[in-house]
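Dig into what follows:

_____
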Amino acid sequence: MYRAFPICALIVLFASACSTTRNPRLYLSHFNLQEPSVGDFEVCASAGCRKLSRLSYSHEEWQSIVNIFNPAPTTPAGERDRLMIAIGAMETYIGAKNGTSADNMKNDRRVVTGPQLDCIAEAANTTVALMLLEKEGLIRHHRIGYPQHRGFLRGRLPHNTASIHDKETGEHYAVDSWFYANGVPPICVPVSDWKAGYDPHKVK
């Protein structure tokens, strides 16, 4: 699903050994991504996360993200719905700041005039977004999971995604922004479905 084969091979080894309790910061540290804050955070700005952008949200931008969670969701399902909207909005702001606004769905470069992100970069960037939302107290019903991997063992090309855990049920969810273009809310499905090959473009 992506062309950065040397990095992909490393990610396979790095991700395959992880457990559901592994700290997601370990994934970010592999790309030297710093602990995020509203006024100072880093994201991947290229496939394979070879290039980083150091950015910040203005007060007005961050308030618009906070408003997505007002009133606060009362259920995990409601919170997941808000999280997907928030991540899409955060991608829109980031794309305008670092030139990735034309990032297309999957790895489709046919209409891309700027950087095209792959699943490695998308998994890292979505994890940064989730950690920032958690740090600001906007995530209450979930904890941030270690990015998940699927691929060779099931005869498929390798693929990565961010993830979250429902605190009430323990259900593990994939939060995958790679399937859609910049600014479109990501998919959120159980990791078991995602690892079985889930693709929103192939769902009837």
In short: The first strand starts at residue 41 and ends at 44. The beta strands are 41-44, 52-55, 142-150, 159-166, 172-176, 187-190.
